[in-house]
Amino acid sequence: MSVRAEQYAAEVIVREQLSPHLVRVVLDVPTFASTGIPDEWVGLVVPGQFQSRYYTVRSYEDGRLTLDVVVHETGLVTEWAARTEIVGETVTITEPKGSFELPPGAGWLMLVGDLTALPAMARIATETDLPVRIWAEVPDVDELTDYLPASAEVTWLAGTGNGLAATVEGLDWSEGEGYFWMAGESAQMRAIRKHLMRERRLSSHAYDVMGYWRASAGRRPRAVDPGPIYRAGKAAGLSDEEIWENYDRAVER
């Protein structure tokens, strides 16, 4: 028997252009139940479409759910979000899921990502009491300097996300036990996972690396929900490396 995921009808009450590349959409959805996981994501289905795209929940408070949408040349959601008249329209969102999980005893956080990862990195940094270091690769380093919380130590990098693997390989790692979280272009994430497992030899509980989009298809944030793939892999007894290889193949289809 199949069980359909929870869905919510939500009304757009605010559309704000945060930068040339990022649009904030605030939804009225009082029945939404947040997981409380800081990198949680929801599927978003916009008017006139039937396919969902997955976006990080930037915040949820008092029935208002905020999504910060990366806009690019084409895409199911980006073409909708680029319109200035979307306030008042109704969209559908799916129940939230998240993967961020601090291991016991973690004393610091290192966050790395591109433009698509900014909402998750901002929320993670806002909701933790641990020291946070962030490396963010964005098209224009002067565009979103106030987006990430002042409590974090932020290094802004100019680029489109294709230099993140080299950035991680050159990081000066903090002492002691901590947690490394990263998201961005799928091929970059695949290279980084291999580096963390084979070179850094980190435990699978010490990091989370997510492919949000792939270069050949453009910026299409989280077109594939990683949750079912991860659970199926665990049930089949696959290693974390094998599971993430399955996820990468799904993203690249």
Verbal overview:
The chain has helices at residues 76-81, 118-127, 164-169, 186-199, 226-235, 240-251; strands spanning 7-19, 22-28, 41-45, 53-61, 64-70, 90-94, 109-114, 132-138, 153-158, 179-185, 207-213. Helices cover 23% and strands 31% of the residues. It folds into 2 domains: 7-94, Elongation Factor Tu (Ef-tu), domain 3; 109-251, Rossmann fold (3-Layer(aba) Sandwich). The strands form 2 sheets. The chain has a 6-stranded antiparallel beta barrel with strand order 1-2-5-4-3-6. Strands 9-8-7-10-11 form a 5-stranded parallel sheet, sandwiched between helices. β1 and β2 (22-28) form a beta hairpin.
**C-alpha geometry:** globular
Q: State the separation between the terminal residues, measured CA to CA.
A: 27 Å
Number of strands: 11
Please give the count of helices: 6
Mean pLDDT level? 88
Helix and strand element order: EEEEEHEEHEEHEHEHH
Please give the radius of gyration in angstroms. Answer: 17 Å
CATH fold name of the largest domain: Rossmann fold
CATH class of the largest domain: Alpha Beta
Largest sheet composition: 6 strands, antiparallel, barrel
Widest sheet, order of strands: 1-2-5-4-3-6
Q: How helix-rich are the residues, as a percent range?
A: 10-25%
Structural class assignment? alpha/beta
pLDDT < 50 runs, ≥5 residues? none
Structurally, the number of domains stands at 2
The H-level CATH homologous superfamily of the largest domain, spelled out, is Nucleotide-binding domain of ferredoxin-NADP reductase (FNR) module
Instruction: Give the name of the CATH architecture of the largest domain.
Output: 3-Layer(aba) Sandwich
Q: Beta-sheet strand percentage?
A: 25-35%
